Amino acid sequence: MPTRSFLLHVLKDKDMLKIKTTRDGGDDGDGYRLLVSREWPKGLPASGADGFNPSLAPSESLQSSLRNGKIRFEEFGAKYSAELDAQEERLKKLRAQSKEFDITLIVEELPDGRRIGQMLADKIEGMREDGKKSAKAVIEEYSRRMEAETVQAQEKDRRHAKQLAEAVRQYKEGTGGKKSVKITREKTKDCKNKEDAKKGNTPAPAAGFRFLEHTADIMAEAWGPTFPAALTQTAMAMFSVLGKGRAEEEMKIDESFAAKDQLVVGLLSNILAECEARERLAVSIDIGEYDEKTNRIRCTVGLARTRPKDAIKAVTYHQLQVEREKGGRWRIQIVFDV
Question: What superfamily does domain 216-337 belong to in CATH?
């Protein structure tokens, strides 16, 4: 039986939700037009929507905070996602209806109206028929929560940097003491240098991964100082979707590929296929040797004695990017079919 590395992934048609604003005209392809707004917009005729659901729109207080600049969109997204969690039954019903007929979400014409509508569509499409959240939905919420926490951490660093500057000023003028300077410096110890502390920025890790927004599947971005380091992070992104566990067994892999992009897709596909066949969960990877000329790779994959979640169907070439950036860092973008 051929392994997945020899198969090309073909994207299939999926049940998709359309998004339009109140100013966009309707057409026959819209199907059922559902208005998602806390109030019926002025100027929108009664025939402009077939249904009206204010409970799925962001709360007025949350919209006001975004509009007045009190919170950033990343924090807004995390809070809006939490609000939608309370509407699970409605989301489940819309998900089931979207399989029977076309649905177009009508949102208000706002600076972030389409982005808000896309968040709602992703939330609906991420619901399974049993009402539980799919792996895609969980990842999206995790990504939004991490973005919100990053923003909060940066704001905290900015405050600490201001405190440090004020303490230094007081010390020079004789109105403060060495103790205040020392305490404030402790708060900024996570910053790389004084320039980072002044800007309030915490440097990005040398290697890591994150999940990007995608309307249908799971998209991950990984990076590292070398290609093997970026590949390791790409594999860890896939493992995080499949589940958690402790390495109890090892699986050795020694393969060669024609190019780096084929190596990325082929290696991950083979790991996925082997885990399914062995009913094991991949939790770690150690790349012991990589030959850049022949694209030969030798690695050890740590396996947990548990079955992986049925979350990833295939590793795809769709929107695949394997590149070395100007600064020398390697970056990999990949889409997992769920």
Answer: Archease domain (3.55.10.10)
